[in-house]
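tool=predict chain=A
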Amino acid sequence: MKLVPFRRPHLAWVCMLLASTLWACQGGGGSSGPGPNPGVTPTQTPSGPTPTPGAPTATPTSGVATATPTASPAITPTPSPVPSGPTPTPSPGPTGALNANPTSLSITGAGAAYAQNVLVQETGFSGAFHETDTCSAATPIASMTGLGSGPSSTVVVTGVNSGTCSATFTDGRGGIATVSIVVTTTSVIIQGSKEKTR
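tool=predict ok
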């Protein structure tokens, strides 16, 4: 068996190995636990109740009393009594007598150029006037236009042919007025012929 001489560098290496093992067993220099992490900052938890989002925050009053307005009571209108039964129909007020002015006409020609007016009226009356006449025979004597409603209405009387007739106006409730009408036309002779003129 050949003996290997012990060299000093081997001894140094063994000492370093022992020292490293001892340091690992003691926790890296005597510390019993892991050290603080220098990259993490601890978060402080606030004490007390957590405020609710959206809730109104009470503002302290500095000792000044605030008056609270008192609401006035609402006034309820009292409905008017509704009469029962049918609504009475108002009676017509007093009216005047039906009359026509003028009561007689003398028309001296045929056509609109010789027409005359008759005013039919009745105070306080608003209904329709009515007219009948004897002027619309087979040969008409006169025509009546424009008759309307009360209290007054103007009638235009136009002569058509020579003759005499009458027009009667009523109000539908007993009132009556009569107008006498006389229509005359003049004649001229032209070249030996006799013609009627308007």
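The chain has two helices and ten strands. Confidence is low (pLDDT under 50) at residues 29-36.
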